[in-house]
Each structure stands twice: as structure tokens, then as C-alpha cells.
Design brief:
Strand content: under 5%
Largest sheet: 2 strands, antiparallel
Radius of gyration: 23 Å
Number of strands: 2
Structural class: mainly alpha
Length: 189
């Protein structure tokens, strides 16, 4: 009888642990999904950046202040006659460099880096004012990109790396899907 009692206790406790573990198991989200779920944007009216209507957001986890910078990137590409695929490369690069924020500071790798593309004060990217102006910074990024041999045959992350010379040539690939979502949403808004 005692053996039966302990066997039943073990089964009840074991079954309880299995149920508890199942209920407590975390839901695994991709980095982009977690970001999109976690972002709450301020309720603000849409704004126009050139011909692009920029909503409050979130779009792929980005709010209006960041989406405005994406719109400047898209306008720069459009004015250079390059399409939505290349616009997304620019948006992807700025996502990776600054989170689509116009940063007035650099980091350890580039303490003199500034703007949405974190462009360095090496003369290649213009003045500080140029680097801090999202449209001009994007124009400079795209100008360098389209002057690369065979730039159209590069993957998005290879193209961004060829311009930015990031330490990791695959660094930008994590931002590609979100960049496409942002460009698509702003193209149709």
C-alpha cells in the first residue's frame, strides 16, 4: 500500500511539473517580432516628407521620428533615379548604423561618426552639417554606392558593407526585412 501511495504521488508531482513547464514555457519571437510588439509610438498626426506621408507608426518597430529619416533616405534615392530596392538598402544601412536616429555622437569604432549613417569626419562625407542632414547624408551614401563597380549585383548587406566598411560584412542583413517593410509602408502611405 505504501509503495502504491508513493508511486501515485510521484505520478501526480511529475504530471504537475510537466503541466507547469508547458504553461511557463517562453514564447520565442524573432528579434524583429519582439521589437515590433514592444514598441508603442506616440499618437501624432501623419507628416509629409516630400511626397511621402509618414504615419505615427509603428512600422516594423519604428516610430514617426525614425520613419521621417527613412523618408528622407527614400527621397534621396528617388531623386537620384534609383528604385525601391536601393531605397531599402539605404534604410537597412541606417537601421544598422543608428536605428534610424540622427545621432550627434559616435561610438568606440568611430568617435567622430555622426548622423543616421554614422559617417566619419574623414572628408568623404562632407561637413558636419552634411552628415547631420538626413537627406544630404543619404545622397552621399547613394552617390558612393552607385559608383561601385557592379553595385547592382551585390546583395543588400554586401552593398551596405562596401560603402560603410563595417567590420562585419554581414552585419546589415539582420535589418533587411524590416527595411523592406518600412519602404513598402512609406511607398503606399
Amino acid at each position: 500500500m505504501r509503495k502504491l501511495f508513493w508511486t501515485l504521488c510521484a505520478l501526480v508531482v511529475g504530471g504537475t511539473l510537466v503541466v507547469a513547464a508547458t504553461l511557463a514555457a517562453p514564447t520565442f519571437l524573432t528579434q524583429a517580432q519582439a521589437k515590433a510588439v514592444a514598441v508603442t509610438c506616440p499618437s501624432v498626426p501623419a507628416v509629409m516628407v516630400g511626397t511621402i506621408r509618414v504615419p505615427a507608426g509603428p512600422v516594423a518597430g519604428y516610430c514617426q521620428d525614425q520613419l521621417v529619416n527613412a523618408a528622407h533616405i527614400m527621397n534621396a534615392a528617388r531623386n537620384l533615379g534609383i528604385g525601391t530596392h536601393t531605397q531599402a538598402i539605404g534604410v537597412m544601412t541606417a537601421m544598422g548604423e543608428s536605428g534610424l536616429r540622427n545621432l550627434d555622437h559616435g561610438d568606440t569604432a568611430g568617435p567622430d561618426s555622426r548622423g543616421i549613417f554614422q559617417q566619419r569626419a574623414n572628408g568623404a562625407w562632407g561637413t558636419l552639417a552634411d552628415r547631420m542632414d538626413p537627406y544630404t547624408a543619404a545622397t552621399n551614401f547613394f552617390t558612393k554606392l552607385v559608383n561601385l563597380p557592379d553595385w547592382k549585383s551585390l546583395t543588400p548587406t554586401e552593398a551596405a558593407h562596401a560603402v560603410q566598411v563595417n567590420a562585419d560584412p554581414n552585419y546589415y542583413s539582420a535589418y533587411w526585412i524590416d527595411a523592406q517593410k518600412v519602404v513598402s509602408a512609406l511607398s503606399t502611405s
